[in-house]
Amino acid sequence: MTQARRTVSPLFQILFLLASMGIVSALSPTALATEKRSLVLTHSESHRPFTDVLINGVGSSALIDTAATIPLIDDSYLDLEALGEDAPTIEATEARILGIGGQRFYPVARLPNLSAGGERWSDLRVAVNNESLFPINKSVLPISIFESRVVDFDFRNDRVYLYEGRPKRVRRAHQASVRYQDVNSLMFVPVKINGVRGRALIDTGADVSFINPQFAEQSKAKFDEDRTAILRGSDLTRNRASIYQVRRIAFAENEFNRVTVPVLETDLFTELGFGDEPMMIFGMDLLQHFRVQIDRGRQRIYFIRSTGDSRISASREVYSGPKDISVR
């Protein structure tokens, strides 16, 4: 999910970064450099990173989304009468939420209290889903909300670590890194499909990886005439995708061979500024194979894997997750 704010500013400013301030720590500078906080990930069939949260004192679950730029909650958490003096204020601006089904605009409010693990926020600026026809079952937390240099997704151990300094070294593992490009607060890394260069958006909010038609055409991917896919975004819009076979996807010294991948025609790529360029979404069907460490200080992403193989080489069919993608 990608998100942006609608203002009177030029079009290129529609995506914005929310830098939310948490509680001021009383730790010394030395302690800050070594302390490591963590969030526990809850089970999800789609492998997306959900964690337990408290929204105005109400327990819920939230998706930690690397391709989101503003927190998103349901309007049921903003009971103005129940909150009384602590009721949030609704702003005149709107947040534009971009997804595979198109764009939607949601009001922006100040949320009195939000917590996740040991992280606490107050008077937090959030987008509010007020459309009962298109419910978003889970809240969304962008990684920009966390005040730490490193956001470390340890999917195997169901943890997200937050700390300063450099990314943690992992024993008996191969660690390859690549510099990411920050485009409107979203992270893009270089990728090759069948030797053709493109860019990939790191998106822990996406169950399934997919590419745009330009990437499929330039890489000479092979069209599978016998199958199509139905992808459904968080707005529940159904989107038909073609299925293609590619020989190799390579990035940061890693390689996936003989990959079946959906090719989706969507305005999302154009809205991101890559309508005519080869582009890919890295979803959780791919990211779950790694420990993903995001070093925001150096703008690098580390993909960590077992040293059993010098390079990852895996055949992968289209992921078939409940209510998100089906193949027939």
Mean pLDDT: 77
Order of helices and strands: EHEEEEHEEEEEEEEEEEHEEEHEHEEE
Shape: globular
Helix-residue proportion:
under 10%
Please summarize the sheet with the most strands: 14 strands, mixed
Are there runs of 5+ residues with pLDDT below 50, and where? 2-34, 309-328
What this model shows, in words?
The protein is built from five helices and 23 strands. It has 328 residues and is mostly beta strands. The strands form two sheets. Strands 1, 2, 3, 4, 5, 6, 7, 8, 9, 10, 11, 12, 21 and 22 form a 14-stranded mixed sheet that branches. Strand 3 and strand 4 form a beta hairpin.
Topology:
Layout: E1 2-6, H1 29-34, E2 36-42, E3 50-55, E4 58-65, E5 72-74, H2 80-83, E6 90-99, E7 102-116, E8 119-129, E9 139-142, E10 150-154, E11 159-163, E12 173-179, E13 181-183, E14 186-193, E15 196-202, E16 210-211, H3 213-218, E17 222-232, E18 238-251, E19 254-263, H4 267-271, E20 279-282, H5 284-287, E21 291-295, E22 300-306, E23 325-327
Parallel strand pairs: 4-9, 5-8, 15-20
Antiparallel strand pairs: 1-6, 2-3, 2-11, 3-4, 3-7, 6-7, 7-8, 10-11, 10-21, 12-22, 13-14, 14-15, 14-18, 16-20, 17-18, 17-23, 18-19, 21-22
Using brief descriptors, characterize the structure shown:
328 residues; mainly beta; 14-stranded mixed sheet; nine-stranded mixed sheet; 5 helices; 23 strands; 49% strand; disordered N terminus
Question: In summary, what is this structure?
Answer:
The chain is mostly beta strands. It has helices at residues 29-34, 80-83, 213-218, 267-271, 284-287, and strands spanning 2-6, 36-42, 50-55, 58-65, 72-74, 90-99, 102-116, 119-129, 139-142, 150-154, 159-163, 173-179, 181-183, 186-193, 196-202, 210-211, 222-232, 238-251, 254-263, 279-282, 291-295, 300-306, 325-327. It has five helices and 23 strands.
